[in-house]
Amino acid sequence: MWDYLLLEVRRTLRDGKFVVGTVAMPVMMYLLFTNIGGADGTWKTASMIGMAAYGALGAALNTGAGVAEDKAIGWLRQLRITPMTPRQGVLGRALTGAVTVLPAITAVLLAGAVVNGVRMDAWKWPVVAVLLWAGSLPFTMLGLGNGYRLTSQAMGGINMLCYLGLAVLGGLWFPVELFPGWLRHVSSFTPTNRFAQLGTAVADGHAPSLAAPAILLGWLLAFGSYALVSYRRAARTI
Questions:
Q1: How does pLDDT run across 97-128, given as a tens digit for each residue?
Q2: What integer is the mean pLDDT of 60-75?
Q3: Measured between alpha carbons, how far is residue 233 from residues 123, 143, 146, 198 in Å?
């Protein structure tokens, strides 16, 4: 399984579309959003965390795109005749997602510190990074569920819908305070909103509210169940 994990991580990081879409794009958007109109330090910090979460979201969902492509070319069928068990195959893909979110998170945090001059206590930087890394797991499960269930042709559109929809609704691009009241209420139950709150709470100097990990855990169970059902369905056809 570890050889499979190493193979998939290398394949992903060598993919130019992955690097541009989930690493370079969030950095460029962050620098654009925070250097037009004289943004203050508070917004630069909050936007940094939001865009790091946005990059992690894209990297996590991209795991499913790889599954859909492998299913189309018959690679998943080949894996079924190797000594690796189906559970190890799924776990290997999930771990691939866990590894490949790190460049997206790190790149945006570096842009905040080096380019935008964001300053936080030294201990906060690794804590924010670890919380965003851990909080991305539900989105990896969503990506895997889509990958096992959908064709490679359908995957692009659905992934983009999930990527942009969850990012905007969760307040990763713009402050939730700008939303209408009813939309703020809806946003508070989205996984992306609570995902970003893990980092912003630490940046503000306090622990995340209990609601944030509780809601994320609920979405993890939901997306994990979706991934499991999708895998079982795919296993009958590959």
A1: 888 899 999 999 999 999 999 999 999 999 99
A2: 77
A3: 44, 15, 12, 34
pTM over 0.90: no
Cβ pair 148, 71 in contact under 8 A: yes
SS (H, E, C) the chain: CHHHHHHHHHHHHCCHHHHHHHHHHHHHHHHHHHCCCCCCHHHHHHHHHHHHHHHHHHHHHHHHHHHHHHHHHCHHHHHCCCCCCHHHHHHHHHHHHHHHHHHHHHHHHHHHHHHCCCCCCCCHHHHHHHHHHHHCHHHHHHHHHHHHHCCHHHHHHHHHHHHHHHHHHCCCCCCHHHCCHHHHHHHCCCHHHHHHHHHHHHHCCCCCCCHHHHHHHHHHHHHHHHHHHHHHHHHCCC
Q: How confident is the model at residue 197 (pLDDT cuts 50, 70, 90)?
A: very high
Measure Cα distances from 198 to 123, 157, 218 in Å: 15, 29, 15
162 alpha carbon, distance to own chain's centre: 11
